[in-house]
Predict the 3D structure of the following.
Amino acid sequence: MKTLFLTLALGLCVPLSAQITFTDTTWEQLLLLAKASDKPIFVDAYTQWCSPCKWMAAHIFTREDVGLFFNEQFINTKLDMEHGEGILFARAYDVDRFPTFLFIQPEGDLLHRGLGRMNALEFLELGAAAIDSTRQLGVLQRKYEAGDRSPTLLKNFALSLQTAMYGQPEAIALEYLQNQPDWGTPENLAFITQICPGQIEHPIYQFLQNNRKQAYQYVDSDKVDEALKAGIRAKLASAGITRPDSILMFFQAAFPDKGEQYATEYELQQLRRSRDPAGRQRYLELALSFDRQYHITDPALLNAMGWTFLTFTKEKPLLEKAREWGQRTLNIQDDFAANNLLAALCLQLEDKGAGIAHAEKAIGMAEKIGLDAAITHSILEDLRKLE
């Protein structure tokens, strides 16, 4: 009887090779199918207007590696959260941001969840967490609600909430830390850096700020600094603080030795949004002086500066400077972002050969991890048209 049910139910699937196979049927039938196959249900909770939802459907769900894993491990379905059964489903499982990815046990209990656009590696990692009992958010939450306050449970629960961008991971993290005799152990400093809330008044943030140099001994200093900078950026934005002296004060409070550098970095981030010529000119001048003073080695920052120069100016010497930043990025981290930037700069500088090489390499890298390379394909087409 079980075999007969599975055969009939699988007939409701849309069988497409090398991608996730989604079953289109009622929720009640999905639960029966999950019980019969002894598999959890994966739900792509989407809306028709959600661009990241459409991107995931076009670029990630269609991948062979993703399809093989999800078809083996789960019964897969899609539900529109604004129509049909999706409306009640959204209320039952607290879905209000999209795309939300839910993993449901055959009994209907939440097993795990994730949120937002991801590349293929990130999405496969989400699926792996959904079948790992130490990381399943729903399981951890039920154990917590049943009274389990073991350190391992609290720590894993906080990290799972943070990864899912759900609930209040900082509250669970604080509960864990308040039962720790020493927050300054290597393990706890790594946890604090990872979980650090973007609220500069929070006790966890305050501890990391006050013990920043101790954390450097056990955790990558860039990760420590980024955790603290994120809190400052959130505070400046929420409070509407724009005065340069006030911005500098916040950064110097957290980084007495790096405050000026990070305040300038923040100003550059704000100027990237400039639409007026004066703001754009200020960005170009400030970026050049910033690099002269600090010789930037952060790939993400170099990439942002390169793309902004590409947008803000057509002057060849400035574009050559941006290409220098792109090459520096490549030397540090040979990845899609670096090659994509260099391809775009080569197009503007009419360097056909180097540009095609970078574009083709970027496209190959994007295909491996499931990144959107549509812009890179367009750049490659334009490069091939150059004389």
Notes: Residues 1-16 have pLDDT under 50 and may be disordered.
